[in-house]
Amino acid sequence: MTSGAAPRLFVVSAPSGTGKTTIVRRLVGGHPGISLAVSHTTRPARDNERHQRDYFFVTDKAFDAIRDGDGFLEHAEVFGNRYGTSRREVEDKLASGRGVILEIDWQGAAQIRRAMPEAETVFLLPPSRAELQRRLEGRNSDSPEVLARRLSEAREDVGKWRDFHYVLINDDLDETYRRMSLILQGGGDRYSTGGKRRRERVEQLIASGGWSTTLP
Ligand code: 5GP
What we know:
This protein is an alpha/beta fold and 216 residues long. Helix content is 43%, strand content 19%. It has helices spanning 20-30, 60-68, 87-95, 106-115, 129-139, 144-157, 173-184, 196-211; strands at 9-13, 34-36, 40-41, 56-57, 72-78, 81-86, 99-103, 120-125, 166-169. The strands form 2 sheets. The protein has a 5-stranded parallel sheet, with helices on both faces. A 4-stranded mixed sheet has the order 4-3-6-5. A hairpin with a 2-residue loop joins strand 5 and strand 6. Helix 5 runs antiparallel to helix 6. It is globular and about 45 Å long. The two termini are 27 Å apart. The site of guanosine-5'-monophosphate has 14 residues, from strand 5, strand 6 and helix 4. Guanosine-5'-monophosphate (5GP) is lined by residues 16, 39, 43, 74, 76, 78, 83-85, 103-105, 107-108.
């Protein structure tokens, strides 16, 4: 989007370990008109997570029931667990005039682009492969198998940035917050993936960050 009314539905995706949750929580805290849609997941809660605040932690059976009742706007399997966005939560929030942020993976983002083409999609990239590994290891809450899987999938996910409206490299939290705020206010054109120069620059940054093996 280049001008006109402020966009209302935002999708933020990023490889695991990019710092997306931190950014999104800060954005929601700093923008009272925008709220986060809390997803459903079949993954077990981590120690620091709370039901209803971080996720609705549900059984496979409960997840199936919501899906079969067309209750998800989008849903996907990520790292062997299932995740879904409640249709009602998003529609109710939008109807009440609030902006909504979805923090979902690239598969979910693709579904949202089809179902709600007015959505604005943002992809966050970690500054480098080494940094992403460091962050994932520092999280210290996943088993070694899950960690290895997250790392290898993150490598593949990096290349998905081209399908999004905007791309940001999260090398500085404050700066990324500022840029995301601009995007939320409809003034983030310089971070659009539509420009040739921006695309070339991102390709370069990705290559220099140790991600070159992921480029097509
Ligand atoms: P985590 O298990 O680390 O909380 O999340 C793993 C991945 O699932 C992240 O990329 C996160 O953005 C994604 N995710 C979280 N909620 C949803 C959702 O409702 N739908 C989809 N498609 N992905 C989600």
